[in-house]
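TASK: fixed-backbone design
INPUT:
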């Protein structure tokens, strides 16, 4: 059995890594040369560089340059340089032309320098100082992660340079086209023809140099991308092979103590700077201290993020402890990163404001501008570092999830992981919720504020409904009366509406102490346009507290409205009539007008039902029949105090007048008219059974009759008005049974009422 030491293992891993890099480079070279490969069985073409004729310079002689191999491009450049130097020896000795020739020589030499720089970069390895040891500790993983993060920043910088280089290539092609057009417009015999040729050749050489720089950047990007992929795989492998380290635990705890002490010192320095701002009146000193406070804030953010990184490393190291409790909770802090990002953005805005302030203040004073700008650069550098630390914290949190999942199992960390994802969603919602929609009195109103207002209103509505349900339940269980429950419900509803209104006003940023001004202005409006509304509102409050009227009472208003009260609202009261018609009556009518409440204190009341019987009927029989008829009506109320009575009230023209005086329960009926109908119906039925006659008004008509001849009245006496009227009416004369005239009984229109039988 062969035993391999850890040093030999690391050496073999390094050799394997170098071998993989060589394989990747060889594969890239093979792919780059495969495009120019010939078909099988054919002879490769000999490369012959294109050397332009400078006297008749072509615009596209360099078109094959990008597809040529590195050795071919070197050969091409050497022959081109040689031909160029031979041609420019015969050029006229002019200062401007000599400068152009020198610029071309510089560009040719620049292409060679680019090749030399590319060879040097190949010798310098990517991520040379990064170590990926076997069985690493948490600190070794953190060091490797930090080095890879720096390499990723370098890769991002190369990507930015590549985008800028692409723009440079496009601009170089544009200048090249312009020089071609200029050369075409100038005749060969023109004095400026030679200068145009040199300018075009300079643009072509400059474009070739730009292409070489672009090729070099592309190769660097490829190398860095491959190396970063390898480094990410190694970091993941290190997370799988992490080992607990007691030394790392002590170092991390010591570093935490140092960071906390630094935070306390920064807080003291910040407080001292703020006190100095309050004490001084010098604008320069004030601005200086404000910049210091910004710098302290940036350093404090960086220290908090560093402290968070150490907490995450300690958590990962603790869960790796062999003899420790592996069921440990994740170290989660969902608020740190969003708050830090928000503070960083705020500090960036403050920095821009201070910079514009200094530009307007210092003006053209370069010395003062440089002094301030160095301080601004320090703050800006700190903000960039804070951004890098935020990325580090997020990366450490993901690493912690991975380590906990590997050590404790997937199900054990599922809850924490879901919570982490929900925290990210909550952070996204916070960004959206904090978006300002509009402002009221300088207070920005966000989606969060609107959502809170809606929740407050929904909560108030829910409390109101819950109270209504509670009072209805109390009424059903007969623990309170209906009107008391209704009054309490209304009072609580008004209080809830008032409290909700004040809370919403405070949430939108309005000062509730200023409501006195609003109340003063409102009182003026109440005195004019809102007088009736305010009067009805106060009347409704009086009705609820004084309780002259309650829900369910049977009332009769001065205006003739009769019915039961269903609701007592803020402005009006709803009354349901006997025809099931709802009438809204203003509350002020109940306070200022006359109201008859049939059920205020006692629902039992006495009614009088008049009736008449024929003369000659025994009053005792009538009384007995009326009492029996009253007992048949269900709403009749009778006890030892309140008895049903029958009164003989008078002697009418054709009847004996009686009254049935009976006590009834008003809550059992809907109207007075229904009561009279019920008692009259029972009285009629009882009288029919007993044969008691109910008379109706009767009249005996006696008509004066004349004989065959009527004696004439004396001329001196006028005719009787009655006789004249009767004669004019053409009434036939009749005689009595005894043959005598009935003049003594009266004229034809007169008569006497009698209580005789209907046969008369």
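OUTPUT:
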């Amino acid at each position: 059995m062969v035993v391999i030491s850890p040093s030999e293992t690391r050496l073999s891993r390094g050799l394997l890594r170098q071998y993989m890099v060589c394989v990747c480079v060889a594969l890239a070279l093979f792919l780059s040369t495969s495009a120019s490969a010939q078909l099988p069985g054919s002879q490769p073409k000999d490369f012959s560089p294109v050397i332009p004729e400078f006297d008749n310079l072509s615009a596209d002689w360099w078109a094959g340059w990008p597809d040529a191999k590195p050795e071919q491009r070197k050969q091409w450049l050497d022959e081109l340089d040689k031909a160029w130097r031979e041609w420019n020896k015969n050029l006229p000795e002019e200062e401007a032309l000599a400068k152009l020739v020198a610029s071309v020589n510089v560009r040719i030499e620049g292409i060679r320098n680019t090749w030399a720089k590319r060879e040097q970069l190949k010798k310098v390895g990517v991520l040379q100082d990064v170590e990926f040891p076997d069985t690493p500790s948490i600190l070794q993983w953190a060091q490797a992660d930090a080095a890879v993060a720096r390499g990723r920043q370098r890769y991002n910088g190369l990507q930015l340079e590549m985008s800028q280089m692409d723009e440079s290539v496009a601009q170089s092609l544009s200048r090249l086209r312009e020089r071609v057009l200029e050369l075409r417009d100038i005749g060969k015999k023109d004095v400026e023809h030679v200068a145009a040729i040199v300018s075009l050749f300079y643009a072509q050489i400059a474009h070739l140099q730009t292409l070489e720089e672009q090729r070099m950047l592309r190769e660097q990007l490829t190398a860095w991308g491959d190396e970063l992929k390898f480094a990410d795989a190694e970091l993941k492998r290190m997370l799988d092979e992490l080992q607990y380290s007691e030394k790392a635990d002590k170092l991390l705890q010591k570093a935490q103590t140092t960071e906390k002490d630094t935070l306390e010192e920064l807080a003291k320095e910040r407080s001292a700077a703020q006190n100095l701002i309050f004490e001084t009146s010098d604008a320069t000193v004030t601005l200086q201290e404000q910049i210091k406070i910004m710098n302290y804030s940036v350093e404090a953010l960086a220290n908090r993020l560093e402290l968070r990184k150490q907490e995450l490393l300690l958590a990962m190291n603790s869960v790796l402890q062999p003899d420790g409790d592996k069921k440990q909770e994740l170290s989660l802090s969902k608020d740190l990163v969003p708050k830090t990002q928000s503070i960083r953005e705020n500090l960036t805005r403050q920095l821009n404001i201070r910079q514009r302030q200094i530009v307007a203040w210092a003006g053209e004073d370069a010395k003062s501008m440089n002094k301030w700008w160095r301080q601004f650069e320090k703050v800006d550098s700190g903000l960039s570092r804070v951004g890098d630390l935020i990325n580090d914290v997020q990366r450490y949190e993901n690493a912690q999830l991975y380590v906990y999942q590997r050590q404790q199992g997937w199900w054990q960390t599922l809850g924490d992981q879901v919570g982490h994802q929900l925290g990210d969603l909550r952070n996204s919602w916070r960004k959206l919720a904090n978006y300002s929609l509009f402002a009221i009195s300088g207070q920005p109103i966000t989606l969060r504020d609107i959502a809170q207002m809606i929740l407050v209103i929904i909560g108030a509505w829910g409390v109101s409904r819950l109270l209504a349900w509670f009072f209805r339940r109390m009424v059903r269980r007969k623990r309170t009366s209906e009107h008391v429950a209704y009054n309490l419900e209304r009072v609580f509803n008004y209080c809830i509406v008032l409290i909700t209104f004040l809370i919403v006003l405070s949430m939108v940023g309005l000062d509730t102490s200023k409501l006195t001004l609003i109340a003063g202005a409102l009182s003026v409006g109440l005195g004019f346009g809102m007088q009736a509304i305010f009067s009805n509102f106060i009347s409704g409050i009086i009705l609820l507290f004084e309780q002259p009227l309650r829900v369910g009472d049977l009332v009769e208003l001065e205006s003739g409205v009769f019915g039961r009260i269903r609701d007592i609202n803020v402005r009006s009261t709803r009354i349901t009539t006997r025809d099931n018609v709802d009438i809204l009556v203003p509350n002020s009518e109940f306070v200022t007008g006359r109201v008859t409440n049939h059920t205020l204190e006692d629902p039992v009341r006495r009614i009088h039902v008049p009736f008449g019987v024929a003369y000659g009927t025994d009053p005792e029989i009538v009384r007995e029949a009326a009492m029996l008829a009253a007992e048949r009506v269900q709403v009749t109320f009778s006890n030892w105090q309140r008895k049903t009575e029958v009164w003989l009230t008078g002697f009418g023209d054709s009847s004996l007048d009686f009254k049935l005086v009976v006590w009834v329960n008003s809550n059992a009926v809907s109207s007075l008219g229904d009561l009279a109908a019920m008692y009259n119906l029972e009285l009629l039925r009882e009288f029919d059974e007993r044969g008691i006659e109910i008379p109706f008004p009767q009249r005996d008509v006696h008509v004066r009759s004349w004989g065959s001849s009527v004696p004439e009245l004396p001329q001196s006496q006028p005719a009787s008005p009655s006789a004249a009227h009767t004669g004019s009416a053409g009434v036939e004369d009749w005689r009595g049974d005894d043959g005598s005239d009935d003049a003594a009984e009266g004229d034809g229109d007169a008569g006497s009422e009698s209580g005789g039988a209907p046969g008369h």
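COMMENT: Confidence is low (pLDDT under 50) at residues 1-16, 21-26, 28-44, 716-760.
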